[in-house]
């Protein structure tokens, strides 16, 4: 029992060590996107029921690292600001399915082909779902679009700032960079970090417990493993970052790249908790279309990916990178220690605040 526990911890540490530099890079990139991307850029381009609005929603949501429940408030805000149901649905799918942090760890743990196919598949899924929602349940958006086009152009200076009387102080580049890093490691990391650690531990357990080739032996490499991945991933609450080490561990046991892609797409975008919020934001009918588009697109794209790997001459059952401790140098170790410190920082701050409150709490009773 002790030996098995040690094997799980060793395998988990290998995954963490391999992932650490790419995770840090992903968080820094996410912070810079937050700092230098205009805050109103998304809402200004997502109105109406046109194809361009849906495509822009897919593209603009793709690099943002938010989980399926975390993206719901942002999507609700976009909907209230005039984004169409289809654009909102596309944003709800592309945002949790991929992000700069998940792409970095995909490169580290899987392979370059999957690193390209993952965001491309997310964009295809999100765009098709958004177009389907607009086509089958977009009458309100079409009426709003007609009303907006019939209204006179807004040029009346409603805010009182067009004359130049309102001046805003723009932050410097250094201030923006600091703000982005603060967002990445103070706001974003605590939200995603716990799920990443859970994914690493699960990956370690799967590596230690499952014998090599067991998935290939019992599920084969056809449609069945794709359906199994879909059934397993759809109800789970996992984020794009935490699914990657799990998929990497399963891939080393024989999971096909198509089934891996199904898990990577369906896991972050669908779960029981988020579906209720999606129904509230875009309506029940649109939510059903949204869910059906994710499930169907994931299966079709998974089948296509298996065919692509075979066409490229790549093994469908031996495709993921095997993690070897010998290949992890000083950069990996330093990154792992830094990332571990950043992950423990919120707990240390909470403990510190708790200790600081004790004297005040006792003094209140005097």
Characterization of this structure:
With 366 residues, the chain is mainly α. 73% of the residues lie in helices and 0% in strands. The longest helix is centred in the middle third of the chain and has 37 residues, at 173-209. The protein is globular and about 60 Å long. It starts with a helix and ends with a helix.
Largest sheet: none
Strand content: under 5%
Look at the helices and sheets and give the structural class. Answer: mainly alpha
Shape: globular
Which percent bin holds the helix content? over 70%
| Average predicted local confidence, pLDDT | 77
| Poorly predicted runs | 147-160, 358-366
Q: Count of helical segments?
A: 15
User: How many DSSP-defined strands?
Assistant: 0
Termini distance? 53 Å
If you compute it from the alpha carbons, what radius of gyration comes out, rounded to the nearest whole angstrom?
A: 23 Å
Order of helices and strands: HHHHHHHHHHHHHHH
């Amino acid at each position: 029992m002790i030996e098995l526990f040690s094997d799980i911890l060793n395998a988990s540490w290998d995954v963490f060590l391999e992932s650490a530099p790419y995770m840090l890079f992903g968080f820094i990139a996410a912070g810079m996107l937050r700092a230098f991307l205009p805050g109103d850029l998304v809402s200004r381009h997502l109105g109406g029921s046109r194809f361009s609005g849906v495509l822009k929603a897919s593209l603009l949501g793709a690099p943002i690292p938010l989980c399926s429940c975390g993206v719901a408030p942002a999507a609700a805000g976009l909907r209230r600001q005039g984004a169409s149901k289809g654009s909102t649905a596309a944003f709800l799918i592309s945002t949790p399915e991929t992000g700069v942090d998940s792409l970095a760890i995909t490169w580290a743990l899987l392979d370059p082909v999957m690193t390209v196919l993952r965001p491309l598949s997310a964009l295809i899924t999100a765009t098709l779902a958004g177009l389907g929602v607009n086509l089958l349940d977009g009458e309100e958006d079409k009426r709003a679009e007609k009303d907006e086009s019939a209204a006179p152009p807004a040029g009346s200076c409603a805010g009182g700032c067009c004359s130049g009387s309102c001046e805003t102080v723009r932050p410097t580049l250094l201030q923006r960079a600091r703000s982005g890093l603060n967002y990445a490691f103070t706001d974003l990391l605590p939200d995603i970090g716990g799920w990443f650690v859970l994914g690493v531990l699960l990956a370690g357990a799967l590596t230690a417990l499952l014998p090599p080739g067991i998935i290939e032996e019992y599920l084969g490499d056809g449609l069945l493993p794709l359906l199994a991945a879909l059934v397993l991933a759809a109800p789970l609450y996992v984020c794009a970052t935490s699914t990657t080490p799990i998929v990497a561990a399963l891939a080393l046991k024989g999971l096909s790249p198509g089934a891996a892609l199904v898990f990577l797409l369906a896991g972050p975008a669908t779960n029981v908790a988020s579906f209720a919020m999606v129904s509230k934001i875009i309506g029940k009918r649109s939510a059903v279309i949204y869910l059906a588009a994710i499930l169907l697109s994931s299966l079709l794209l998974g089948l296509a990916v298996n065919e692509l790997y075979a066409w490229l001459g790549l093994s469908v059952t031996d495709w993921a990178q095997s993690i070897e401790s010998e290949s992890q140098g000083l950069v990996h170790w330093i990154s792992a220690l830094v990332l571990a410190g950043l992950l423990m920082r919120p707990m240390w701050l909470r403990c510190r605040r708790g200790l600081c409150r004790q004297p005040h709490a006792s003094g209140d009773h005097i």
